[in-house]
Every structure is written in structure tokens, then in C-alpha cells.
Amino acid sequence: MGLIHKQFLSGNRIYGCSGCKTHLATKDGVMSTAFQGQHGRAYLFQTVVNVIEGPPQDRPMTTGLHTVRDIKCCECYQVIGWRYVKAYNEDQRYKEGRYILEKELLIVVS
């Protein structure tokens, strides 16, 4: 598998994995805080780092059918959210390539 080189982020507010504090995203990458995850509130991010993606799955959600990949922390392997691969409804296409991180599974690192 090889070595994993983690990225370290800088900025006002850095979100990290609640299990191991690995940097995941910054406040500047938040697109919306009005999402719902499996554990409650969730944030939509433009980009995240230090994650491993699982296989694609079709998943019915409140906004319709989406193809998603679960994402987990590259350090402790905790599932922290998912990445939208495909949205089948035209009005949901803005989510494609974006990431959901669940608030319950995040901590503010700095």
C-alpha cells in the first residue's frame, strides 16, 4: 500500500477527524451548513484532504437518488462522510464532486 503523506492545512478554522485530529478541511471550503447526515447535521465542502474513498454506491436520499462514495480518515479509518459522484436530479447536480462531512465526527483543530 505504501506510505500515506498527510496534508496539513492552515487558516482560521481547520476541521479535523474527531478520532485522531487529522486535518480534513478548512472553513473557507464550506459551501453549506444546511445538510443532514446519518449522525445529524452535516456540512457540504468543496474539497477535503486526507481521506480514503470507498466503492461507489447508489443511495436514495431525501433529495433523490445519488451515487456516492463513503469517505474515511486516512489515519484512523473512521467513516466521516461521503463524496457525491452523481446526482440523478438536474437540480442536485451542483453536489457532484463535493463532500459531506458529518459535524458529529469533526473537531476544530485550530
TrEMBL record:
Family annotation (InterPro entries): Yippee, Yippee/Mis18/Cereblon, Yippee_fam
Keywords per UniProt: Metal-binding, Zinc
Residue ranges constituting the Yippee domain according to the UniProt record: 13-110
Keyword set includes Cell membrane: no
Protein origin, superkingdom: Eukaryota
Gene Ontology MF: a single term: metal ion binding
Family of this protein: Belongs to the yippee family.
Protein name: Protein yippee-like
Species whose genome carries this gene: Thamnocephalis sphaerospora
Lineage: Eukaryota, Fungi, Fungi incertae sedis, Zoopagomycota, Zoopagomycotina
